[in-house]
Prior knowledge:
This protein is an alpha+beta fold. The chain is 29% helix and 40% strand. The radius of gyration is 18 Å and the shape is elongated. The relative contact order is 0.18.
Amino acid sequence: MKTVYAIELNEELLEDEIELLEQVDVQIFVESSILLIPTKQKLERIKNYIMDIGKYEESYQLIELKQAERTDLFYDFGFIIGDSSYLITELICSFNIIQGQKEQIDMALLQMEECLLAIHQEDKQRFFFIDIQQKELIERFAKAYEIEVSFFDLDKWTEND
Length: 161
């Protein structure tokens, strides 16, 4: 799980524009008009270039999940390219369950299921991703089932540049 950045284009790139961007470590996905950029520093440089050529639509900070279990709600908050799932950071939050009896955790997860966008397992921990507007509801479920959840600041937690 890591942070990457994306620029959404408002029109297709020309061949020479694609060649130029490929030289600076940018992944280009023509079918979805999205550029994936590995660092914030590169994002700013490439964003300026895309704006100069008049093809800039919007940019996003994303969480890249390599092996996510996605729900039907996932696609309202992210997209899939290749083997990776991407969620738009400003729309989501993530939590894990850090304490509680197994039976209570299982029952809480049944309630939480309708809110989940994706589940990602890393280092023997399960990270649950939800719509940021559902955070309070998850906290109420946790309280009702006497379990403890911990939310993450995705901006700081996954910054890799």
